[in-house]
Amino acid sequence: xxxxxxxxxxxxxxxxxxxxxxxxxxxxxxxxxxxxxxxxxxxxxxxxxxxxxxxxxxxxxxxxxxxxxxxxxxxxxxxxxxxxxxxxxxxxxxxxxxxxxxxxxxxxxxxxxxxxxxxxxxxxxxxxxxxxxxxxxxxxxxxxxxxxxxxxxxxxxxxxxxxxxxxxxxxxxxxxxxxxxxxxxxxxxxxxxxxxxxxxxxxxxxxxxxxxxxxxxxxxxxxxxxxxxxxxxxxxxxxxxxxxxxxxxxxxxxxxxxxxxxxxxxxxxxxxxxxxxxxxxxxxxxxxxxxxxxxxxxxxxxxxxxxxxxxxxxxxxxxxxxxxxxxxxxxxxxxxxxxxxxxxxxxxxxxxxxxxxxxxxxxxxxxxxxxxxxxxxxxxxxxxxxxxxxxxxxxxxxxxxxxxxxxxxxxxxxxxxxxxxxxxxxxxxxxx
Length: 432
Hints:
InterPro entries: TRAP_TAXI. It comes from Rubripirellula reticaptiva. Keywords: Membrane, Transmembrane, Transmembrane helix. This protein is an alpha/beta fold and 432 residues long. It folds into two domains: 249 residues, Periplasmic binding protein-like II (D-Maltodextrin-Binding Protein, domain 2), CATH 3.40.190; 105 residues. 50% of the residues lie in helices and 15% in strands. The chain has 14 helices and ten strands. Strand 5, helix 4 and strand 6 form a beta-alpha-beta unit.
């Protein structure tokens, strides 16, 4: 083949192979879909930042976001398999298809009311137009359980089920007197509302009678609610959390926001995502203050949904293996085994020595018989020598059967000695 043609073909083949590899790599990008919340909410912001970090950690991953109405819709997407990862509330109702990756932060139930409505507790909502939250979000589920526990029935005509943005508009327009928001402390929607003096935060508590003294304390009420709804927690909306408001801490019900995934999602991807989350917690905490308290220990405690196997592998990465964890027990067992073996070996040696001593007795008896026969040839009844030799052989055989003698080389020597002695007795008898 012409060298020039060969070099030209090689020159063209190398770029072609490189281009083909690049296209193949582009085509095999792994798509990960995450369901968030409204595009203006914390869920979406968190998902965006986490996705950027994950794509940098694993360039083969293409991170795709899907906005949603909230936690309930995110759970439905995980159950149906249309999304891989989502942020859900820890009290969400889901089947076995949902698995936890990490607890992110606690969301607080904010009750924002028009100041002119003079709402002071949950009982007062019966007379006012109230938004309970979208039925596809987590706010509605929590508020429904809270009102059921409180034995408070709100007239259906006074209820709305709007998302956060529409609820904000309804409050500002006067169509709503009160609205519930299950969001992290510092949420923009709450900040915008409280910047207007027409609105205020109302503590989560009830009144059991007509006088002022019949108001149940916030902490006692929420602690009671927790016995009915175990995934809820008592939390405070801190003093001046929203540009100088509230003027005092406001009692609220808290629900954890959880990073979750499909139960059949890839173990390696799940582990890498959790690793990325904690590796970038400083950056994420700076961009989203709610994540500043992100911690590996608390992130896997009190979870409703079981941990995904990949996440559990990450959390257990520093735990000692089986051998290291049980080193003392294994060492003790080995020591006991060696002592047992040594003891058994000693017993066996004693038994073997005892059997050796027994066969030595027969050696001595045969040797004495042969010596005596040679010394007293012709003077003693030779028939008695044969009887004695037969008795020795018979006794040795009985001890062999009863396992007091071993059928080993020592016994073969004894048989040879008996045979040699019998030949010697025969020779003496013939020469007499």
